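Late entry, evening session. Most of the bench is empty. Finally got around to the prediction I had been postponing all week. Sequence below, unchanged from the version circulated by S.P.
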Amino acid sequence: MECLRALLKDYKNEIEEILVADKQLQKELLYDMQKDEASMGKAKAVAEAGPSGTCRMPAGQTLSGMAGADASARATVRSVLKEVNQNTPTPALHLMSVPKVKSILRSAGPGSRRPDVLESVRRPRLFESDDEN
């Protein structure tokens, strides 16, 4: 996305004219560029706010573009984990729906040949060879 943004930086206003034949691609590119700019803005704000308690930088180093994106990703992960870990316990196993499996032998009604077929397959067969005569 960074490469595309650099290429289209000068032509951002002309994207609609360039991609007039493919409206869907045009909308996707504009949306992706807006999201990328927003994430870069967040990363810059995080970098300007200073390092958090978990991310300490040695003296003299600053966050580059990728490090800023990493900080933004860490903030996103923290917010997602906060939503997931709202102390909701996992439901008990007996409350979960478990598929029921029927046995072939039990499901075979009267007149069904399945148990007979299975028994015939299980029995060992002795084949007589023509060479023994």
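Two things to note before I forget:
The chain has six helices and no strands.
Residues 2-51+65-81 form one domain.
Will write this up properly tomorrow.
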